[in-house]
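=== RUN LOG ===
request id: a7f3
mode: sequence -> structure
chains: 1
length: 107
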Amino acid sequence: MSSNNTTTGEPNKTTGQYHSIKGNVVEAVGNLTGAESWQQSGKQEHAQGETEYQAAQAKGYAEGTIDRLGGKKDAVVGAVTGDRQQEASGNVRHDKGQAQQEWNKNT
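=== RESULT ===
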């Protein structure tokens, strides 16, 4: 099992959750049958899935921060120079970044 999405090489929340849940199931089967190899394999896959999920979450939060700051800069520059289109697009980028941060913050 890979510790991240094999298609892109980037951490992915969906595959992280999948491996976390799959690891729990494999560990449970190991617990029921007494198969220590299944227990260990399940624990390991669960841990790797959780790590991937958290890495994807951190990456998404950081990307949101970049969009939020870049958008704010564009909005301010647009407002100062009177470029309403730049100001509006900066506000949209800022709001997109804020939403991405909310979606990826640790709860």
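=== NOTES ===
The mean pLDDT is 93.
The CA atoms of residues 1 and 19 lie 9 Å apart.
=== END ===
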